[in-house]
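Forwarding the complex inputs:
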Amino acid sequence: MKREPFFWITISCGLVIMAFIILPLIEMMTAPSLAMLKATIKDKDVLRSIWLSIYAAGLASLISFSLGTPLAYLLARSDFRGKRLVEGIIDLPIVIPHPVVGIAILGVAGKNHWIGQLLGELGIRIMGSVTGIVIVLTFVGMPFYLNSAKNGFEAISPRLEKVSRSLGASMFSTFLRITFPLAWRSMLIGIIMCCARAISEFGAVIVIAYHPMVASVMIYERFEAYGLKYSQPVAVCLVSICLALFLILRILTGGKTREA
Amino acid sequence: MIRLENLNITLPGFNLSDINLSIGENEFFILMGPTGAGKTVLLEAIAGLVPVKSGKIIIGERDITTLPPEKRGVSIVYQDYALFPHLTVLENITYGLRFHRMEKAQAEKRLNRLLDLVNLSRLQQRLPANLSGGEKQRVALARALMVNPAVLLLDEPLSALDPGFREEVRSALKRLHQSSSSTFLMVTHDFAEALSLAGRAAVMNNGRIEQIGHVTELFEKPSSPFVADFVGMKNLFKASFSGTHAMASGLRVEIGRSVDPSSHYLAIRPEDIVLSREKFSSSMRNNFSGTVVKITNQGFYYEIDVGVEDISFKSLVTKGALIELGLEEASPVYVSFKASAVHIF
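Prediction (whole assembly, two chains):
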């Protein structure tokens, strides 16, 4: 059978996009010599910054999970006036330029705002602290968790919950026994998306905290101070971690569930 | 026993108004009406899943109007089964047990009896995804009855099933009803289904109950044009009445009895209308000559539209009768029906 020209257009566009994504990554991953990678891994500063990235991003995901789950459930299950507005607000952090996020948060957490003053009196420092980093990462990562969890809840028929209630289960038992077991996959994917987004954040973090240094800031600093060659090994370490995260994500979404 | 008193429900774009209904202990009651009449909303209100604006819902002697769904003792079975997809058949059926106090031995006895009744003993370990439609609905029935509810609500439980499975679930329903003490309240838009399950029924339209009565009574003596149309009286005409006859669009129809002159409609079932090529000579029979306007194939039978002056009668005939009578469009034909087949509203 003779293929139509359109078929070849789809194939060639696909190949161009694949190359566009993979080529720079492969180039970067293979650029540093093994000796250099070894040295980088042994570098305490690098390890500390990568650990901080993962730790802060993990915390941000955890916060998103615990604060975001009830809201995601509410958005999936009920219709109310202004729901669209709420959904729009949730998506705002995705569209706002990253440095602007940092500046905006500083505006509230700084000394000229009563919240900032209150935090200061409580001894909580935002500027240049892990707390500040976690807050910024939660800000940018939260929408990813919320949307994924919401989609997961929406995919479950409300009738399952209604039947569960009619069989004697309270709202909480119903969530625990029916909704959660059916939506945990979406929730976990949301956590991973949120985490990956948080790890990659740079623009907002650098406004709030240059030190302590997260991995993305360190990569930028090494690039600025020493050039490409010295920033690459750190980048390789960070990218490997991100890739691992997404690999888990892919396996989870592709895996067979009990009900399938 | 269920008693609904002046129930009003207001949802965006939909109202249920002034619902009054009383269903006896262990009755099999059927709620009928076209799609959008508010049947499912009424069921969900009884189950506590839709808020009630005013009025009372009483089950047994208990006013449950404000109770949450889990405290009502009302189970619900949906058209689309709503089985928990991550639980096996057995786990689905026993799901409600942990929320009810029931002795272990008694629960086990109940479980085995239900599994027997719905014929699922061999499928206990299957997941819902690996069941047929009929099996799924039987699981849903067993799950709902496992907790021994005072009331079992059934929301079009047969509608999503293939005809073969429908019969199997219908007979399971009958068996379950006979062997349980629960009151069954089933919703359907299909009058034939209601006839086959018998008992009392109500017809709903536009958020109101139009008529309550035994199914055969609804079928034979509909009290409003809407119910008449719903139970299949397709010949429904506006008419004026005097003495023992009616005038419908200039057609004089013998009724054989005097009627309330405030009535406005007369109705005749299509299967009560006889078509013939020769004029019937019988007293007490209405006889009109007309012409065939349209013949519609309905599968097992044909629907014939016959024009008599300004009126169009609908009649049902078998294919055999159609050929025997040699009916085609525009052929002349006599329409006749007994005076007693005329229903008045």
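Chain A has a mean pLDDT of 91.
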